[in-house]
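Quick one: structure for this chain?
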Amino acid sequence: MAPAAHVGKALPMPMIARLQGATIVCPPDPIMAAFFGRLGGVIEVEDQSEFDALSVVTATYASYFKYLDTIHTWVRGQSVPGEKARDYITSIYKALANAPDTAPDEDFMHLAQDYATRGGINEQVLRELTERGTFEAFAESLNRVHQRITGE
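Got it. Here's what it folds into:
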């Protein structure tokens, strides 16, 4: 568009249609921030490298739902009706999504440690997934997505 006085990027996700989630904006721009702020929130980033790194987060949605589906399938396999299992899983994960707000100065590993009661079942699943290299494989996928986004 000519004459363009200012060019910026934004990455709105489908959940803003329900006024949820934040849109990343680069570079910071008060007009874009005001617009996207009304649609669920905005996170302004200083440069393209921050924008690209945060863009990788959007590649994890399907995996998140596959994780929940794995839990759901397992619970249903224990003769729990599908709707009841789905309602419980949804309720628990909605609550977990709010957990970072309870400790805003802590990182996610702090929360993992808080929820991994020593000798408990959360500690067991975390340990077993870690031993199998699940999180390392996930980090490798994130690196490959980042390379795809940046063209490197």
